[in-house]
Write a structure and sequence with these properties.
11 helices; transferase; 415 residues; binds S-adenosylmethionine; 3 domains; cytoplasm; alpha+beta; 21 strands; methyltransferase; Rossmann fold
């Protein structure tokens, strides 16, 4: 790597903090978070001067493990490009299991992740990084020139077609949210190769490590994540069904292949009193809902995620909110969403549901039944996800939830 300027900042006016010290602190945090695990990934994160990719951002911020530097927003205010947070980058790179000498395609560029990949494949390997946006690839090129990573090729194109000219790849790493898997990604991957992709399934995104097995992909682990949406031929955004929008206090259901709701009836339902149902199932304070929610979307046909703007939450219009959305069971003129309440144990919360509308209580009870089923039969297990070509007959798919997209049939099954 070329020499880069040893920039220093002063931490609250005292001792100067060098970029290397910031990197060391970031790596320590990534290890604590369990995001960086293998020594080679740790070494890569310790060496790449990521702050050079976003000179407009304060250097210390670029080394915050959870900070994503947004570099572009579209006309509707949706973030469409960023340098991902170090924790997310490390998590995906660990999922990809990159070895020296490999050929790796990154779809969705930014430069920083490509530099980590270049460190991991070494001089004998090669990295192709591509982005649909010329501004992004220019930024990536400038960054990679500054860091001196020469085994990276930067390409401007729509990732839908992959990059056939440099295929096949041992690994494909997608760093933008996908609702489908285009055939090119499977065909450009070596047999047994790994595809890591933030895949949206009925509104819920998980970055999944898939292994190619002929024409199908088989999951080998996944992690919770949020990513900017795909542009180009594969663009397929969630659609919002707004059920409340007074004074900027918007509440909406994010539809992703779900039936069209009766929004007028649901607006009226939200104005009615809450009906609660409780499950007796508890979660530890630091326990994630990620597996429970995947179970709920496997078991229940009409479960979009509900998104509430902070102002709606502050005024208490909804009892539960999350940037990733809250699973909400819709049934005609009524709905119920997952929530929690405190228990006598300060470290545990009881799962339940809040219902609204004429059938609000019954819908909340139905949601709670599936929370109890998860606890009884699936808790502690992970969903198994497969991707099959569109047109694969039902009897050749694993049992479970099937999500039909343009190119593929995605299945979620449970042990
Ligand atoms: C989260 S950013 C990538 C971050 C990057 N990997 C890094 O170094 O942290 C996602 C990128 O995907 C790009 N993108 C969106 N749709 C795309 C498509 N169809 N093909 C290629 N890139 C796409 C966006 O322009 C955006 O720059």
């Amino acid at each position: 790597m070329d020499d880069v300027p040893d920039m220093t900042i002063r931490n609250n006016g005292s001792a100067p903090v060098s970029d290397q010290q910031l990197r060391d602190a970031m790596v320590q945090r990534l290890i604590e978070l369990g995001a960086a695990r293998s020594p080679r990934v740790v070494a890569a994160f310790r060496s790449v001067p990521r702050h050079l990719a976003t000179p407009e951002v304060a250097m210390a911020r670029t080394y915050d493990a959870e900070y994503a530097a947004v570099t572009k927003t579209d006309a509707t205010g949706v973030d469409i490009s960023s340098v991902s947070a170090p924790r997310i980058q490390a998590m995906q790179i660990e999922q990809a299991d990159i070895q020296p000498g490999m050929s790796v395609l990154e779809i969705g560029s930014g430069g920083v992740n490509a530099a980590y990949l270049a460190e991991l494949v070494g001089e004998q390997g090669r990295v192709i990084t591509m982005d649909i946006d010329h501004d992004v690839t220019q930024r990536a090129k400038d960054f990679l020139k500054a860091t001196g990573h020469r085994n990276v090729t930067v390409i401007t194109a729509d990732g839908e077609q992959g990059v056939p000219g440099h295929a096949p790849y041992d690994r494909i790493l997608v760093t933008v949210q996908a609702a489908d898997i285009p055939p090119a990604w499977i065909h450009q991957l070596n047999e047994g190769g790994r595809l890591v992709v933030p895949l949206r399934m009925r509104g819920m995104t998980r970055t999944i490590a898939f292994v190619r097995d002929g024409e199908r992909l088989v999951s080998d682990g996944f992690e919770l994540c949020g990513f900017v949406p795909m542009q180009g031929a594969g663009e397929n955004r969630v659609r919002l069904a707004v059920i409340h929008d007074t004074d900027g206090e918007e509440i909406a259901l994010r539809l992703d292949g779900h039936p069209e709701p009766d929004t007028e009836a649901l607006r009226a339902a939200l104005r009615t009193a809450r009906a609660e149902a409780w499950s007796g199932v508890t979660l530890a304070g630091d326990e994630s809902n990620e597996h429970l929610d995947l179970w709920l979307t496997t078991a229940l046909d009409n479960l979009p995620l509900m998104a509430a703007k902070p102002s709606a939450r502050q005024r208490g219009l909804v009892a539960s909110a999350s940037p990733l959305g809250v699973p909400t069971l819709v049934d005609g003129d009524s709905f119920a969403y997952r929530t929690v309440r405190a228990t006598d144990d300060p470290d545990r919360f009881e799962l339940g549901a809040v219902g609204h509308g004429p059938q609000g209580k019954a819908v909340a009870e139905r949601l709670v039944e599936e929370i109890q089923t998860w606890d009884r039969a699936h808790r502690g297990h992970r969903a198994h996800i497969e991707v099959h070509p569109a047109g694969t007959p039902d009897d050749q798919l694993p049992a479970g939830r099937v999500i039909d997209r343009l190119h593929t049939r995605i299945t979620i099954s449970w042990p």
